[in-house]
Every structure is written in structure tokens, then in C-alpha cells.
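Hi P.,

Sorry for the delay on this. The queue was packed all week, but I finally got your sequence through. Input first:
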Amino acid sequence: MPPITTLLFDCDNTLVLSETLAFEACAELANEILESQGISDRYTGHALFTEFVGQNFRGMMSSLQKKYSLDLPPSTFDKYVTREEDQVIGKIKESLQPCVGADAEVARLVASGRFEMAVVSSSAGRRVEASMDKVGMDKYFPRNRIFSAATSLEKPTSKPDPAIYLHACKVMGKQPGECVAVEDSKNGTLSAVRAGIYTVGYVGSYEPEQQDEMKRVLKEAGADPIMVDWSEFGACLERIEKAA
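Then the structure:
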């Protein structure tokens, strides 16, 4: 097996605590769409998060279209996608925080000089870039090391599709077997695992009472090992390297 050379990090609720902010904006737009279609159901940000965590807004809206048999012309759909990006970026610029310990661990990894690193996200590239800028991680992840399933691919998609991980590997000139991903969601984990990438599960962004359940979910999706705190990443990586 090849040595591990590359680390691929999910963004939302893995490096930065953005999911709550994002799903608040998503819920506002989802409810606007449902109302415009004469559907009485309404979503809170938490309800959307529970049902669609790990998907981007485009994937979420596609799922809602199927669920409610919605009729949204492509031009209207794209306008909602752009509005969602703008609203989430506004919230990010106001109040985004990094996940506890993430910055220190990424800084340690950079200082080691052992790995190439990138961010691989379902979220739109503009949103990921705004997130990295807000928390100061742009110094670790330049624009050419941010990969978005929503905007980096010729055909936009969303995790659990492995396409964005395969694209990142191709652009970086890496084989999946020499990469390790870090993911916090079932969809993200499935995306990385289906691409043939070793995957560390991260549950530190969940409430304490949710963590045991999410450990189970991520393990079933193929994540191994699983960490609660970023201080555990070094040991997780060592375990993977020994197994590989």
C-alpha cells in the first residue's frame, strides 16, 4: 500500500461550525419555495439539518423537489441556489467560528511538512472560501486547494456522490489510497469511502448527547477511526498509516 501523503478535510462542521448558520438560511428559502408551490409544510433549520446533513443546498432542493413533486424551472432553481449562497456567506462573515482545536491541529500538520492538504466540500466554492477567510485558515488552504461539489465539477453534484473526492485526487495528482479524509456526516463519509479514501469520522461538532449515535452512523458508513476532539487526529492518522 502507498504511504499516506495527502489530507482532505470536509469544511462544514469539520473545520468550521457553519452548519447551524447555513441551515437557518436554507430553511428560510425552503419555506419560501414550499409556500410558492402551495404546500403547507414548513422546515426549521434543525429539521433540515436532521434530514439533509452532508448535502449542499442544490442537493437538498433536489430532494425536496422529489419529496413534494415540485415544479421549479432550472432558471428559478439556480436563482434560489445563488440566493442561498449569498445569505449563508452573509451569516458566515458575521459570526462563523472554527471547530474547537481544528486550527491548532491544521497548523501542526502544516508545520510537519509531511502532507499536502485540501478542503473537499459539498458547499459552493464561494462559501468555503468565505469560511476559510473568516477563521484565518486561508493561509493553509489557498483557492486552488478548495474543491466544491457544487462549483468545481463540470456537472454540479453533492456528497454522498464520490465525484468531488475523485476530482480532488485527480487535480492533485494523487491516488485515493494515499489520502485520508476527515468527515462529520454520513453523506460525507460515504462520499470519501466510495472514492476509496481512508476516512476519519469527526463527531466533535455534535451535541454531547448526539455523539454516540453519530459515532455509530459514521462507523456504519465506513469511517474508522472516529474522533471526538481534534487533539486525537494525530493518533487516528498513525493508526491508519500502520494499517495501510
